[in-house]
Automatic annotation (TrEMBL):
Residues 88-105 have a biased composition (Acidic residues). PANTHER family: EF-HAND AND COILED-COIL DOMAIN-CONTAINING FAMILY MEMBER (PTHR11595), ELONGATION FACTOR 1-BETA (PTHR11595:SF21). Residues 66-75 have a biased composition (Basic and acidic residues). Residues 76-85 have a biased composition (Low complexity). This is Elongation factor 1-beta. Residues 66-108 are annotated as: Disordered. GO terms for cellular component: cytosol; eukaryotic translation elongation factor 1 complex. Residues 95-121 form the Elongation factor 1 beta central acidic region eukaryote domain. The keyword Acetylation does not apply. Residues 130-216 form the Translation elongation factor EF1B beta/delta subunit guanine nucleotide exchange domain. PROSITE patterns: EF1BD_1 (PS00824), EF1BD_2 (PS00825).
Amino acid sequence: MAVIDFQTAPGVEFLENYLSKKSYIVGYEPSTADVDTYAAVKAPQANTPNLLRWYNHIKSFTDKERTQFPKKKSDFSSAPASAPKPTDDDDDVDLFGSDDEDDEEKERIKQERVKAYAEKKATKKVIIAKSSIVLDVKPWDDETDMKQLETQVRTIAMDGLVWGASKLVEIAFGIKKLQIMCIVEDDKVSVDALTETIQEFEDFVQSVDIAAFNKI
């Protein structure tokens, strides 16, 4: 197994050429071989595009995610990183890019992911839960004006409530009940509150029952 020092120009050149033909150090998915190599490489510059692509990709994973990579070994190993010798030009020459460049790239990747998530969420269809309800509204007796009773019921207006068709159904002894349908948005309209509001028309309404209740 070849031992390569990725802190040197030949080592960087080797990895650049190696990654020009491969997406990962070993195989077709990130593995511990990528993690080991990543730890031995400093942030590359734009003049090594293949190395830069791979480096930023491995960097985008969290430490926890990297620990879950499958265990694989490469055909080469990295030499232990040695402390760079100080020179007079150290302040002027940066062979591997600055930390600022790393932060900018990390922020760019983060913003791209946030944008993609926001776009996906914006296009997701919002489903409004609705119910179809049939109410039985019973009068006091056969002398109750059923037309006026229905008019009173339909005066009830709520956000998320739509009144539908109605008919009179005979109960017994000439007494008829109003059977009326409505569509409600579940998050906006309380069925209990609706029935209680109808029963407030005490001159016309004796009771209110739910004859049918179906989710739409």
